Amino acid sequence: MSGPDVRPAMDPLEALLHRCHRAELLPLARILQVKTEGIGLADLARALSITLRRAGSHDIANAAFRRGHGRPYIDLLRRVAKGYGLQLAEYAEPGEIERAVLAAHFQKRWDATDIATRTALWEEFGIAAPLPETSSGALALAAQTLGRSFDYVLSTTVNVVADPGGLALLTLLNLSPLGCVVRPLMVPLLPVFLWWRFRPDERRVAASVLEVARLRQAVLHRVTIGIVGSPSSGKDAGIKAIFGVDTGNISPIAGSTKEVAIQRAPGSTALYLVNTPGMGDVVERVTEEARQVLDHIDVFLYVVNAEGGVQAREKADFDRCKASGKPVLALINKIDVLRPRDKEKYLADARLKLGATEADFMPVAFDPLPELAPGPIGLEPVHAWLEEKLVALGKDPEELPPLPRAATA
């Protein structure tokens, strides 16, 4: 009697690909010639991982010793790094090796091209400084200027095209006159030919490693913030106050946000804002692409309307956000409308009902009455909370736009 069918643990490469959005995986799928139609994110990530590791393995050895799954990704990565002439420490992590490969690839492209192409490459960094004379000088200046975002921006300069190769020699032997001479020699040389024929696909592996390096930087650098709350809680006003993004949807009419809205913050490289009226049944109505974005939210801002208070819906949605395991900040909006003598009692009651910690609970007024405050109230602690959580997650807090001048609570 056989044991239960236990799926093997997700390998590190598959785990990385699973953290990407499905659309981000399509270039890698084209390089590896993996069909994507009708395949969900999880299955596509697994197929790409196995296909790449197989491409970097000898087919005969793969079938005999590796159960068809190919070599570990770290082995492929080290081989590509060696091909670029890099000497790395034995204990170097995949991300470290990929960054070194990205830099080496950039230098090779720079050194092998003319001034016009170098200028185009330099413009991809978005730096106003004059064109450096050497590739090493370009990398050094870019690293100094861009700071934490350097690796991410460098990864976006990668432009690779897969070269399938593979059948060239076989075609030559079968179709050309040379084949008449060589074919008789193939019988004694067949084992050697087969070993050569099923060798690792180095070109495809190198192109794939560069693309995986780009994906890893996208995952590490991307910041996705979910703004959640009941209709008319003030989410759109909060997005404008905190991030400087006018959604065009600031409205006191209940239900003005009908579905999940996803947008990149202007001026940022990878800050995405997800505006959703709740985490309950609305999630079931969105597209698969939107659901993937929801799955990759880094932190949640949960907005509660002080005029409506914490009801069953607010409690349920707040609990759903916490159940994700991501940091959640409860923002009690419109505190400017509360009478001063009732404010502290109301806030204590709201925090108790939500079950929020003191550190993850803040009073704000994103769009206060003009006679009470000249601008949004309580934004500085919110911004500091976001910076702290992003740093803890290994994200770049510089993606957050600077706060406008704000009044204090």
The rounded Rg comes to: 27 Å
Order of helices and strands: HHHHHHHHHHHHHEHEEHHEHEHEH
The CATH class assignment of the largest domain is Alpha Beta
Largest sheet: 6 strands, mixed
At CATH level 3, the topology of the largest domain is Rossmann fold
Specify the number of helices: 19
Can you give the mean pLDDT?
78
Which architecture name of the largest domain does CATH use? Answer: 3-Layer(aba) Sandwich
Percent helix:
40-55%
The counted number of beta strands is 6
Instruction: Write down the domain tally.
Output: 3
Per the principal axes of the C-alpha atoms, what is the gross shape?
Answer: elongated
SS content category: alpha/beta
Strand fraction equals 5-15%
What's the arrangement of strands in the largest beta sheet? 2-3-1-4-5-6
Report the end-to-end length measured between terminal Cα atoms: 68 Å
- Low-pLDDT residue intervals, each spanning 5 or more residues: 1-7, 59-68, 160-183, 189-199, 251-257, 405-409
